[in-house]
Design a protein that fits this description.
The chain is an alpha/beta fold and 411 residues long. Helix content is 37%, strand content 26%. It binds NADPH dihydro-nicotinamide-adenine-dinucleotide phosphate and L-homoserine.
Length: 411
């Protein structure tokens, strides 16, 4: 028998216990041993819940118990999760976590400790909820040089954008629904401002490129500026607005970004709706591979956590994760990243506005909508982030009478 402790009895933690309750027999068969949850740590009491018989409020008995061989961290946040996880690993206990903040910040160090101790630090659920993506990058795609990862990596924002488009619902209403369904982070700003997707692309990039990609270095923009007007223009252009995280290696330089993108309908990510996530990986031998599934929520996430527990139990004294170096990867300055924008401009005189825009951006095709009378939209030619921003600064020089209503990158 292998005994484990679960730290955190919230959405994911309670899901982990539910998965053991539902599929315990087959899980034990696959692990080759009976898995028993000996402790659950949480701050709160859960009166009437069977978990009460194994509930503790202090980490010390867990770390001091030699019978605990796997610790499952599903509390979230960097501290005290980092301290608990590091101590568990140093004590020779394998760790499974769903905590992307922790992995993005301290993954390299924690993987190194696990390697030195010949145990495991596993984090499949930290990216893409229930989608297997860490394991494929670690085990299945190792023949390839990965040169691009592009994904919808946040379920909350994809759920919001889908409901805004399909049901015309206001942003705040849909965010509340995502919170009620257990998709959103404790502080949902992490979802809607893009930080959660940023941490996830940092983890995937670190794994794929073998060096520490600091999430603080990744240009990140969320979805709070996206309005029903943007949705209407997207529909007119036969495109979908998605929050997309990407990192690309070009000529030995890597650039990464999280931002809303206007995707053409034939883009593989354009059909990913609701809480679903998808990750497109490009390798120099395999070509394109796509991973798809539920990116957030209690049971899909718990499924990935429990699969890691099984792997940890099957490899109690053998390290199976490759690790990335703590050496920092310098990312290409986003000024030089190639891009194209859709820009919505408010104007007072249409023909003057078009002349001003074309003098800087060259010939454009203007898009106008019945419901938005004093503005038009256009798509720039491809350039760099920096050059487009400089042209926009010139356009807004104070005397133009133009107003940028929004600008969204186009893929
Ligand atoms: P919840 O907030 O629902 O659950 C966390 C639980 O841990 C709460 O009960 C919380 O108690 C408890 N907790 C937090 N800190 C401590 C502490 N120091 N000591 C004891 N108990 C503590 O979060 P989720 O289950 O949604 O998420 C957990 C982790 O999994 C996060 O890192 C999240 O980003 C990640 N994740 C979540 C997914 C999802 O769909 N929800 C999907 C993939 C990953 P209290 O409420 O009192 O603070
Ligand atoms: N808040 C996250 C999301 C949870 O919505 O994707 C899964 O990591």
């Amino acid at each position: 028998m292998v005994q484990i402790a679960v730290l955190g009895y919230g959405t994911v933690g309670s899901g982990v216990l539910e998965v053991f309750k539902t599929n315990g027999d087959s899980i034990n068969k696959r692990a080759g041993k009976e898995i028993k949850v000996k402790y659950v740590l949480d701050r709160r009491e859960f009166p009437g819940d069977p978990v009460s018989s194994i509930l503790v409020h202090d980490i010390e008995p867990i770390l001091a118990d030699p019978e605990i061989q796997v610790v499952v961290e599903v509390m979230g946040g960097v501290e005290p999760a980092y301290t608990f996880v590091k101590r568990a690993l140093l004590d020779g206990k394998s760790v499974v976590t769903s905590n992307k903040e922790l992995v993005a910040k301290h993954g390299a160090e924690l993987l190194k400790i696990a390697k030195e101790k010949d145990i495991n630090f596993l984090f499949e659920a930290s990216v893409g909820g229930g989608i297997p993506i860490i394991r494929p990058l670690n085990q299945s795609l190792t023949a390839d040089e990965i040169y691009e990862i592009t994904g919808i990596l946040n379920g909350t924002t994809n759920f919001i954008l889908t409901k805004m488009k399909e049901e015309g619902l206001p942003f705040e209403t849909v965010l509340k629904e995502a919170q009620e369904k257990g998709y959103a982070e404790r502080n949902p700003e992490a979802d809607i401002e893009g930080h959660d997707a940023c941490r996830k692309i940092a983890i995937l990039s670190s794994l794929a490129f073998g060096m520490q990609v600091d999430y603080e270095d990744i240009y990140t923009e969320g979805i709070t500026a996206i309005s029903q007007a943007d949705m209407a223009y997207a529909a007119k252009m036969d495109r979908e607005i998605k929050l997309v995280a990407m990192s690309k290696k070009q000529d030995n330089e890597v650039w990464a970004r999280v931002s809303p993108l206007l995707l053409r309908m034939d883009h593989p990510l354009s059909t990913v709706h609701g809480v679903f996530n998808a990750i497109l990986v490009k390798g120099n031998v395999i070509g394109d591979v796509m991973f798809y599934g539920k990116g957030a929520g209690k049971l899909p996430t718990a499924s990935a956590v429990v699969a890691d527990i099984v792997d940890a139990v099957k490899h109690l004294e053998r390290n199976i994760m490759s690790f990335w170096s703590t050496k920092k990867m310098e990312l290409l300055d986003s000024y030089y990243a190639p891009t194209q924008y859709f820009i919505r401009l408010g104007y007072t005189d249409f023909s003057t506005a078009i002349k001003q825009v074309e003098s800087l951006f060259g010939n454009i095709h203007s898009i106008q909508l019945e419901d938005y009378k004093d503005e038009f939209g256009f798509i720039t030619h491809e350039s760099t982030e920096g050059e487009i921003q400089e042209k926009l600064d010139q356009l807004m020089d104070g005397s133009s009478g133009l107003e940028i209503r929004n600008k969204i990158r186009v893929e």
